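Progress report, Aim 2. The chain analyzed during this reporting quarter is listed below.
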Amino acid sequence: MNQGIANVRIVLCRTSHPGNIGAAARAMKTMGLSGLHLVSPKWFPHIDATARASGAEDLLEQCKVSDTLDEALSGVRLAVAVTARSRDLSHEVYDAREAARIVLEEAARGDVALVFGTEMSGLTNEEVGKCQIISTISANPEYSSLNLAAAVQVMAYELRMAAEQGAAPREKPLDLATFEEIEHFYQHLEETLVKIGFLDPNEPKRLMQRLRRLFARSRLEKIEVNILRGILRDLTEYPKELR
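Predicted C-alpha cells for the chain:
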C-alpha cells in the first residue's frame, strides 16, 4: 500500500456536534488514516465524541486542536477543500476519486490535508481560499447534503482505494511551496499592490480572491515563489515615475 497515506491530514473546521468528530475518527481509522486536526471545535473533548469513535479513541487522544486553519495547515504542500457548494470564483474542481489520486501523489513527498467545513454551512470562501484545489462528492442533485462524518468516510475510502491501486507518480516530482510560503507570498503581494496604488484597501472588491485562484491553479513551486517575491521587492524600489 502507498505509504504516503500516513501523511494525509483530515482537518475539520468549526464542528458544532462533537459526535461528528468521533464518527469522523472512526471513519478514518477503518481506512488507515490517523492524522486528525480540529479547528475551533465548539465542544471537544466531549463524551459524545468518545462514544461515537467506537474503538478509534486513540485518534481523538492524538488529534491536534488549532485556533485557526492556518495553524492546522502548517507545513502542508497541498490543501484540498472538500465542498459541495458551488463557488463563482472557484479553484480547479475534482471529483473524490481524482482528488484522492492527486492527494496521494503529493503525500508521497510530504504532508497534505483534506479540509472539511462546519456541518451547517460548510467551508467559507476564505477557508477555500487557503486551499489549492476543490474536491466534490457526487451525490443526488436533489438531495446532496452529506453528514460530515459520511463525507469523511467517502474521501477516506477513495484514498484507501487509490493507495491499494498505487498512485502513478509524476516523472519529475515538483518541489511545491509549503502553505506558509504561499501565504507569506499572498501577504507580500497584497502589501505591494497597496503600496503601488493598484489595490485600494478601503475598496478591495475581490482582487485578492481572484489572484489566489489564479496562483492556486499554478500550484506554485518553492523557486517560483522566490522569483515572484523577488519581483515584488524590486517593484517597490523603483521610482514611481518608472513604474
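The first strand starts at residue 8 and ends at 13. The mean pLDDT is 91. These observations will guide the mutagenesis work planned for the next reporting period.
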